[in-house]
Amino acid sequence: MAIAKKKKRFFEVDMPIINKDTQLQAYEIEDLEKRNIIYDLTRILKGKNLIMSFQVKVKDGQAIAYPNKIQLLPCYIQRMMRKGTNYVEDSFTAKCKDNQVRIKPFLITRRKVSRAIRKALRNKAKEELTEYVKDKTAEEIFEDLMRNGLQRVLSLKLKKVYPLSLCEIRIFSIENPKKRGE
User: Fold this and answer.
1) Quick count: other Cβ atoms within 10 Å of Cβ 156?
2) What is the pTM of this model?
3) Could you tell me which residues come within 8 angstroms of residue 58 by beta carbon, excluding any fewer than 6 positions away?
4) What is the pLDDT of residues 13-57, one digit of tens each?
5) What homologous superfamily does CATH list for 74-174?
């Protein structure tokens, strides 16, 4: 006796942070649990080369994608770099309201600066970012990063140390995600 073959189908996946829907292929909707989606936000953000990574959670027969990483592409950074400038980058973990997150800021100065100024920029950026994220949830921070709110606030604070030509968060990711969507 022949066994009936299952056929893959497309299921709608909602991405509420960017107000978009997408389709993923699977046998059942439960197979989409913990599946990763990588979405390019370049057209949405008018040329800022940003990639967002989502993780799918299935709840009550509805698939919802929650962001877990946002990343600035290297080609965007190369386009912003100029001769006669310095860059400052850092990597650290911080505790936000609901998760542990990894933040990698990227700063470009207007001119060549001394090592002491670069160190002061790095330390001030780390201090301001840890202070900023400690009372916000990861979802709120992702929305701020897309609206450029966090970068603008950080740039104004760092301007007192040294004026910057670019102040971006190169990578923002959730280290060990707790249960979301419940």
Assistant:
1) 12
2) 0.86
3) 29, 30, 32, 33, 64
4) 999 988 989 999 999 888 889 899 999 998 888 888 999 999 999
5) Band 7 domain (3.30.479.30)
